[in-house]
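Q: Predict the bound structure with DP6.
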Amino acid sequence: MTKTTATAHTNIALIKYWGKKDAQLNLPTTSSLSLTLDEFYTTTTVENSNIDQLIINGQMADPTRVHHFLDALRAELGDFSPLLISSQNYVPTAAGLASSASAFAALTAATTRHLGLDLPLTTLSRLARRGSGSATRSLFGGFALWQAGTNDQTSYANALPTPNIPISLLVVEISGLQKKISSSEGMLRAMTSPNYEQWVHDANWQITAMQAALQASDLTRVGQLAEDNALAMHALNLSAKDRRFTYFTPQTIQVLDLVKKLRQACLIAYATLDAGPNVKIITHSDQAAYIQAQLHQELPKLRVTIAHPGPGVSYEQ
Ligand code: DP6
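A: Predicted complex:
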């Protein structure tokens, strides 16, 4: 029986996707811009089966979300045989990194290749969006820009060529995870914040400013814009009219304080956070090991991984 395997790496948005104008199609309210990371990825193998089944890290998993996704693929590509999907996530479980990004990017690539299709990356990106919005960007290596678009045909990501920027991301894993509020649920609540319109307005100019900062290899500006964007996103969660919430824990705040101190000591250190309490610190590659040592000294229990720009999707036959 033939099997097809694809690997996709996870990505961290420097300008975030936080709100949908169409929840069914995962059409975002704003464009977003990300960096794919070398350290964290998902490898997925698909083969024909008698029912759609999902195995994650060797364990049977709830296939509901994947069923919806396969339905969307079948509607678009034509019917195909049920699939046995086996996924291995090389993402530390407590890291709260968006494994749905690498997972749906790898699944889209493996499934379409399995069907004998050789589709452009932008088409894979558009299809992957139906599984998870952030997956649009995980098909590409380095930086990627997801253009919000206005409909199913026009909302997908592209690679964003940049000069060779010496950027590193320190992924700080914070233990004691609180009960998770999914990204989709978090976005729904955040959109009820009275500040949401301002967020959209700011994201629109920040995405242009971020591209200029990347072209100029201006890491300080990249960091400032990313931190402003991320903290404004988390402020929406706190100011939601409907069931306000936060992903932050006391340790998140401790790490954010430390990032500020590092900056006061003239280091390049800026924080970004996704739908969880973990902090990712943007820095210059030459400063990453020093910052890791500082974190270890002040917060010795936290695991810190240094990640760099990672590759786009790849296949194994
Ligand atoms: C905070 O892609 O996980 O990481 O489309 O509902 O699956 P769904 O959401 P998801 O959201 C990611 C949100 C984020 C920011 C980002 O990656 O842009």
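A: The chain is about 35% helix and 25% strand.
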